[in-house]
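Problem statement: downstream parser choked on a complex file, so we are re-checking the raw output for the NAP run. The parser issue turned out to be on our end (a line-ending mismatch), but while we're here, posting the original submission so the record is complete.
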Amino acid sequence: MADLDGQVAIVTGASRGIGRAVALHLAGQGATVVCTGRNREALEETVALIASEGGTAEWVNFDVSDADAVKGAIRDVHQRLGRIDILVNNAGITRDQIFVRMKPEEWHGVLSVDLDGVFYVTQPVAKIMMRQRAGRIINISSVIGMMGNAGQANYAAAKAALIGLTKSLARELGSRNITVNAIAPGYIETEMTAGLSDEQRASLLKTLAIPRLGTVEDVAAAVGFLAGPAGSYITGVVLNVSGGLYI
Ligand code: NAP
């Protein structure tokens, strides 16, 4: 029997990158995975990939920054599947700009997806998990939330806030057998980092203890660990998956 047999997992931003790898990993552990995002075709691809590996998944299309859409979607998933055991808040964006030039829409754009979106999705899911008296919530933050980064004040603020949210929820929900943790990836090979120039990559590698960019599977394995039986007594932690970018 697989670790997560009979469990239902929701992964936001599962249409590509880290979220897709997390969805594949959790399905490989036996969970039924609800893959969410905005791009329907890409979500269909994730679900087809999971099916091709013998897993079970479905997709639901919503924008995490749309509070009403999120509420309706979570209610529908719960009605259809009867439970929600694992939530991975992965959807996220960057809108990089040096601070003195940052426009309000660049600031609010990132905060509305990377932070407000987590609030909108987690609140209805937490209510369901509280009634179940069981659940795992895993928030994908970033080492940038702990280190800061020039040109990413909006993103760093959102990802740092996500760590505060994680620790507070861990304290609120622990008595209901719900763990809440954050994963802080470093630089991972995805579309989000595809724009790095060769020069940027070369100087970045010099700052890493393990001199390579991370893979989406590196992050997915950490999510699988926290979601599985080995994670049952771990809550309120920030697990860095950064190759030593931040120590
Ligand atoms: P990515 O390849 O750009 O994928 C982002 C995912 O988020 C996509 O599936 C996208 O789906 C979804 N998304 C974006 N805006 C959304 C919205 N408004 N509503 C719903 N879904 C939305 O990014 P990634 O590199 O895999 O990053 C995933 C997470 O890891 C993010 O939270 C990111 O901040 C974090 N992270 C990444 C790195 C890295 O180096 N890549 C490092 C640290 C942390 P749709 O376009 O279909 O909506």
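For whoever reads this later: The pocket of NAP is lined by residues 12-13, 15-19, 37-39, 42, 63-65, 90-93, 113, 140, 142, 185, 187-188, 190-193 (CB under 6 Å).
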